[in-house]
Specification:
Order of helices and strands: EEEHEHHEHHEEEEEEHEEH
Number of strands: 13
CATH superfamily: Ribonuclease Z/Hydroxyacylglutathione hydrolase-like
CATH architecture: 4-Layer Sandwich
CATH topology: Metallo-beta-lactamase, Chain A
Oligomer: single chain
Helix content: 10-25%
Number of domains: 1
CATH class: Alpha Beta
Radius of gyration: 16 Å
Largest sheet: 6 strands, mixed
Strand order of the largest sheet: 6-7-8-9-12-13
Structural class: alpha+beta
């Protein structure tokens, strides 16, 4: 039976990479097998091996924000596979420019700065095969941080905005605690309590679980 090209079944596999165990995700459309890699921060051979095992066709790199463990491998991965780098929002350009310095500071393999093929903005979308994901700008951890949300799959890839039981740090340059809390409450919670989110580190959770129990952002 030939799949309906207009039907999206979003699939994903998460691969912890770098010494920071950052959750790089391969996301793909089950109908077309077209795929994107979210936040290839490092350990690129492991990501490439997973892509081969999954049998998917890489079309793009999506970046939530430009800290070294999320974006450190983006330029090299883009060049090796001829992929556009999409995201984050342009307020993170100063972090992208600082990737070589970040790699030295944290003893990562040498990272390269880049200019994304496309910046992302709140209310925009990204497409992979028949699957469309919404983009939300969620500043606070970094000023240009974005989140990818699939309403159909009830999944959100949130980078370092929110974690199971915690939230992203705001003590980095241009971090802002009030912005981060507002991003979570005003842009993540409306995605629905039953939406599962894939954070930048650690296990998955749901927005409902965090809204009820996360000590930083639970409902009073």
């Amino acid at each position: 039976m030939t799949p309906n090209p207009e039907t999206c079944a979003l699939r994903y596999q998460t691969i912890p990479v770098t010494p920071f165990q950052q959750n790089c995700s391969i996301v793909w459309c089950d109908s077309t097998r077209d795929a994107a890699v979210i936040d290839p921060g490092g350990d690129l051979p492991r990501i490439e091996q997973a892509v081969r095992q999954l049998g998917v066709h890489l079309k793009a790199i999506w970046i939530t924000h430009a800290h070294i463990d999320h974006a450190g491998g983006a330029a090299a991965f883009s060049r090796a596979h001829g992929l556009p780098i999409i995201g984050p929002q342009e307020e993170d350009q100063f972090w992208i420019d600082a990737l070589p310095e970040q790699s030295r500071m944290f003893h990562f393999p040498e990272a390269e700065a880049f200019v994304p093929s496309r910046w992302l903005h709140d209310g925009g979308t990204v497409q992979i095969g028949a699957c469309t994901l919404d983009v939300r700008h969620c500043p606070g951890h970094t000023p240009g941080h974005v989140v990818f949300h699939s309403p159909d799959a009830k999944r959100a890839f949130v980078g370092d905005v929110l974690f199971a039981g915690s939230i992203g740090r705001t003590d980095f340059p241009r971090g802002n605690y009030e912005q981060l809390i507002a991003s979570i409450r005003e842009r993540l919670w409306p995605m629905g309590d039953d939406t599962v989110f894939i954070p930048g580190h650690g296990p998955e959770s749901t927005f409902g679980q965090e809204r009820r129990t996360n000590p930083f952002v639970h409902d009073a």
